[in-house]
Amino acid sequence: MVKARVAAVLAAVLFAVSPAAPALAANPYERGPAPTTSSIEAARGSFATATTTVARSAVSGFGGGTIYYPTSTAEGTFGAVAISPGFTASQSSVSWLGPRLASQGFVVITIDTLSTLDQPASRGTQLLAALDYLTRTSSVRTRIDASRLGVMGHSMGGGGSLSASVSRPALQAAIPLTPWHGTKSWTSDRVPTLIIGAENDTVAPVSSHSEPFYTSLPAASDKAYLELNNASHSAPTSTNVTVAKYSISWLKRFIDDDTRYDQFLCPNPSGTAIQEYRSTCPYS
């Protein structure tokens, strides 16, 4: 009986002085409620948003644009995304993505380029200039976590997002939309990249653009290729649920490190809107 009591006392003392096992820290970058298929397909997410216009005369390195941002910072700062239009186009061609992404918990800038005829490499440089403006001098800079940035773009703007990724490997995500670029090999690109091509694209046919771009990305990289079924080159320039849901999922997964969105990316998604999907899933 005495031995039993001594043992009990010793056990109690050891329990009291032993350090507790550390609790697993929650992801500090998660923003918004747990996602569902409905929430990523919805026209708007859970965050109320506002916009501010950036005059061409007020910036250098790109042609101005529009910033879309969540109005509340109660959950903390946000990752940011710059989006470029394509050849001959203005920011209006990608503007639908602004409020859609911002309402999911990102600061977004859709840009005008210095010239509508700018080539992809120049558009890449301008995307980076827009991110630098957002994080350093814009009126919303205090809402942004400058370590969590991404780029997107349509056509030559999509090619620009590839160029930007090579120039700045610290980017967290890139989404080229029906991209066009004269360079076909991107073996030095290490940024997690989702390429969205279109089956019936005659401007940037997937066989000579999106597919070789994807194939050339390092095999060890986090990458995916989504081909829109029966879609044209201009598919990403107007509201498109498939483009939106997988763009949101990709940005959440890699800018916010939010593994709650893995379910929409792994295993490879399928459906009537998707002609083909390839990836290196599961992601690191």
TrEMBL record:
Residues 25-282 form the PET hydrolase/cutinase-like domain. The keyword Signal applies. Keywords: Hydrolase, Signal. One of its GO terms (molecular function) is hydrolase activity. InterPro entries: AB_hydrolase_fold, FrsA_esterase, PET_hydrolase/cutinase-like. PANTHER family: DIENELACTONE HYDROLASE DOMAIN-CONTAINING PROTEIN-RELATED (PTHR22946), POLYKETIDE TRANSFERASE AF380 (PTHR22946:SF9). Belongs to the AB hydrolase superfamily. This is Alpha/beta hydrolase. It comes from Paractinoplanes lichenicola.
